[in-house]
Sequence to fold (229 residues):
Amino acid sequence: DSGVTQTPKHLITATGQRVTLRCSPRSGDLSVYWYQQSLDQGLQFLIQYYNGEERAKGNILERFSAQQFPDLHSELNLSSLELGDSALYFCASSPQREGPYEQYFGPGTRLTVT
Amino acid sequence: KNQVEQSPQSLIILEGKNCTLQCNYTVSPFSNLRWYKQDTGRGPVSLTIMTFSENTKSNGRYTATLDADTKQSSLHITASQLSDSASYICVVSARNSGGYQKVTFGIGTKLQVIP
Fold:
């Protein structure tokens, strides 16, 4: 158990809908990262927040947005969902803003868009 | 373009044998390189993290090497166990001009250890 929690575990929704994925980082970690992993694909970095502020952006679509709240939990919002958005979405946390610090991954949310 | 290539794509070995996984990268300027183990359907777990000045790092039966000159890394698994069956992912971070870290993931090597 990494100490990072993600909810829900599974999500099934229809195309065009909007969903929110939630992540609670390890106690004391200030950085939260979001990743997408499609079937048999590598992990794609989406976005990073540090202490409430956006820190880095990866391959995040304009239909996706995220935020980190004062209690440090984070939400990833996916809208106008398409079939290709079906994937595992992972959240990770680390204590620092950047550098060679370990990232601790949550168990993931499996999103299925039908 | 920053890239991370891993080989082989998949590997089957007998329990108790050793194996070596390769990672070549073109990420620049280099900041750090990590190896992760990912069991199917679960989040990755960090095995090693190496910066520019480190060329070997061990974590139990896992030993990672880094050659920053040739931009190559390897992960050596000794005396493999059935529980080593997983995907092994190489991740390289670069520091861009804005001071941010750009992270590039390899697609992973799928290792299967059989009895």
User: Anything to note?
Assistant: The mean pLDDT of chain B is 91. Chain B is about 0% helix and 60% strand.
